[in-house]
Design brief:
- The protein has 540 residues and is α/β, with parallel strands linked by helices.
- It has helices spanning 74-85, 108-119, 129-136, 150-157, 167-183, 202-214, 230-244, 264-276, 308-315, 318-330, 363-370, 374-384, 398-406, 426-441, 447-454, 456-461, and strands at 6-9, 12-13, 22-23, 25-29, 32-36, 47-49, 54-57, 59-61, 88-93, 143-146, 148-149, 188-191, 219-222, 248-250, 281-285, 290-294, 347-351, 390-394, 410-412, 478-481, 502-507, 510-514, 517-518.
- The chain is globular and about 75 Å long.
- The chain has 16 helices and 23 strands.
- Strands 3-2-7-20-21-22-23 form a 7-stranded mixed sheet, covered by helices on one side. Strands 11-12-13-14-15-19 form a 6-stranded parallel sheet. Strands 5-4-1-6 form a 4-stranded mixed sheet, with no helix packed on it.
């Protein structure tokens, strides 16, 4: 046999299909896998002794936002290392309706404004999927597959106008989407709780989802409501996918806010019924009871409907602040959030670059310390940060998280927003938290089932045809871990603390994590996802 580039020997293989583990050697040649009998002693340039360890495919995080992480300073390098250290070799980005492409050059400014409002500057926008892929260069350590954001399409074509799109505007959005999907984008995403997506009617989204369906790619949605109206929002998503003939992926499925706790009993049953009726539907979840988003998302959607500069100007007016206070108490038709369904004591500042002392504290406590109303403090903080404030929202119940996590329809995600300050620990801990806490310690899932949710299942959902499994000829993305020691280190106080028990990670056959330390190898790239015929996932 021709000499291998690398051989992982002595380990138990969990291959990503959900099948029981088995002893096997795993070889790498020219960036591809070669499966061998245990103890093969095949000649190799480098040998990794995995005795007593488990070998899995590289993990696929189906929901991140790291396509919007610009810049090369040391802080961003620390953030980029976090997913690698827990075994994430591929990320699905462009979620929640926000992607940095496709943007006609003459419409780039509204899109940069959209990205900066949620993820902070510098905000880049690219004319096409190809331009976006080229911009990543050879600097990436892991791979990206990218969705097309509906909010980006709408900002580029309609702007932030609080109205329905015209037929000509819908056609223009569909054209941009079609070109991006044909070039290799992985699907369509929406964030119907965020501006400008909140202004779209169901018919607009159906038209775009039909384009995704024509390419055999999924419709991925942050539902219009994840709180007390989550069931009606889920019905809208099912209506859209059914009318469009598209596969449906429900992003970071949750039932947030005290009035929605326990509703996962019904939402999961509804997803199961939709699947039984023939809809190709799955969902994903991160293993925490706190979410994270932009601070302005806690305020009524009319405030940001005309864009960030207009929001900041309006929020300086006492009358506008009074209207915000009223709407948080009385509600706005079709909109609800944690503040109106819990309180400012649930909202913790995660990132405020110009006000680092605010990070880690709740809006309620920060406002009380200054003797001001929480709405006034929130508006003042947004002004000081030019709209770029990220928060944590402690709004879910552990029983709901476990119920979604255990569902056969669910795969894993971090919903990682790689920003400075005190980001959500999910960015650095989601996958190792599941393997340590929910698999080994709680027994909620078995190891092979959990790995399937992190590898083979997401690879199938997003058309990554040569990833997600340990099989001959597949891309050599793999993880070597100790199932008895694997655990998350990240906490809300130390959100980037590294995990334990992940010994080695390979991307494209190159070692990117060795003994728990990130190497200098940068083999990652943007993956072009080909069109395909729709098919139901094989294992559930």
């Amino acid at each position: 046999m021709t000499r291998l580039d690398l051989l992982v020997t002595g380990g138990d293989v969990v291959d990503g299909t959900g099948s029981p583990s088995r002893p096997a050697d795993v070889g790498v040649r020219d960036g591809r896998l070669v499966l061998l009998p245990p103890g093969s002693r095949t000649p190799a340039a480098e040998v990794i002794d995995a005795t007593g360890l488990t070998v899995t495919p590289g993990f696929i995080d189906v929901h991140t936002h790291s396509d919007l992480l610009a810049g090369d300073d040391e802080q961003r390098e620390v953030l980029r290392r976090a997913p690698l250290l827990q075994g994430v070799t591929t990320e699905i980005c462009g979620n929640c309706g926000i992607s940095p492409f496709p943007v006609p050059p003459q419409r780039a400014e509204p899109v940069r404004e959209l990205i900066a409002a949620t993820f902070g500057p510098p905000a880049s926008a690219y004319a096409s999927f190809a331009e976006f892929a080229d911009a990543q260069g050879v600097a990436r350590r892991n791979h990206l597959a990218a969705l097309v954001g509906h909010g980006t399409l709408r900002a580029a074509v309609v702007g932030f106008a609080q109205r329905r799109a015209t037929p000509a505007e819908i056609q223009a959005m569909c054209h941009l989407l079609d070109e991006a999907l044909a070039a290799g984008a992985a699907g369509l995403s929406t964030g119907l709780i965020y501006s400008p997506g909140v202004n779209a009617g169901t018919d607009e989204v159906i038209a775009l989802a039909r384009v995704a369906a024509a390419h055999g790619k999924p419709y991925v949605t942050h539902l219009r409501d994840e709180m007390s109206q989550v069931e009606s929002a889920l019905e809208e998503a099912i209506e859209i996918a059914t009318a469009a003939g598209s596969a449906l992926q429900v992003s970071h499925h949750k039932t947030a806010g005290r009035r929605a706790w326990g509703a996962t009993v019904r939402t999961l049953a509804r997803l199961e019924q939709a699947r039984a009726d023939g809809l190709d539907v799955t969902c994903d979840v991160y293993p925490y009871t706190a979410g994270s988003t932009a601070l302005h998302a806690m305020l009524p959607p009319w405030l940001i409907a005309d864009g960030v500069p207009a929001m900041l100007t309006a929020a300086a007016e006492p009358a506008v602040r009074d209207r915000i206070r009223h709407d948080l108490v009385a509600g706005v038709p079709g909109w609800e959030n944690t503040v109106g369904n819990g309180g400012w004591d649930l909202i913790r500042v995660a990132s405020a670059p110009n006000n680092p002392d605010a990070q880690g504290h709740t809006i309620a406590d920060l406002a009380a310390a200054r003797g001001v109303d929480p709405v006034d403090y929130a508006c003042d903080l947004l002004a000081a940060e030019h709209g770029d404030v990220t928060i944590l929202s402690h709004s879910m119940h552990e029983d709901d998280v476990r119920r979604v996590l255990a569902s056969p329809l669910t795969m894993l995600c971090s919903d990682g927003v790689p920003k400075g300050g005190r980001p959500h620990p999910r960015w650095a801990g989601s996958f190792t938290r599941v393997l340590g806490h929910y698999v080994r310690d709680m027994g909620l899932l078995d190891l092979t089932g959990a790995v399937h949710k992190m590898t083979g299942m997401p690879a199938h959902r997003f058309g990554l045809h040569d990833r997600g499994l340990l099989a001959d000829g597949y891309a050599a993305d793999l993880v070597v871990l100790d199932p008895q020691r694997v655990a998350d280190g990240a906490t809300y106080d130390e959100p980037l603390a590294p995990p334990q028990g992940v010994r080695c990670v390979l991307v494209g056959g190159r070692i990117v994590v060795d003994g728990g330390a990130v190497t200098d190898a940068r083999p990652g790239r943007v993956l072009a996802v080909p069109d395909r015929q729709r098919a139901m996932p094989g294992r559930r």
